[in-house]
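Sat 14:20. Reprocessing the chain from the morning session after the first attempt stalled halfway. Input below, unchanged.
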Amino acid sequence: MRYPDMVILYVDQPSRSADFYARLFDLQPLELSPTFAMLKFASGMRLGLWSRHTAEPAVEMTGGGGELAVLLENFDALEACYARWQALGLPILQEMADMDFGRTFVAQDPDGHRLRAYVVTE
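Finished this time. Tokens:
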């Protein structure tokens, strides 16, 4: 069965975004050009960063229309992620909160894309 294996975010400057995500997730870009960058997570999922100025068809929406969600293993890991993202200067859009699915917070990347870190609670 086929399944999604890549998320593409439309960004202003792919190299700047690649640097941001490389630092955030301790990765190295697999591909880097003026119009596109790609990183790959240990899970196999790839993150494409495509210039919103050159994407085809033309991009009508920029950041904030979705979320890149990161599942963490426990509350300690969530707290550590929160502290690290704050130390990196990411704007926090939603402070740590308990929601129907678990405990979570939301930060923002330089292009306005939401980054949700969460722990599922039973």
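The longest strand covers residues 92-99.
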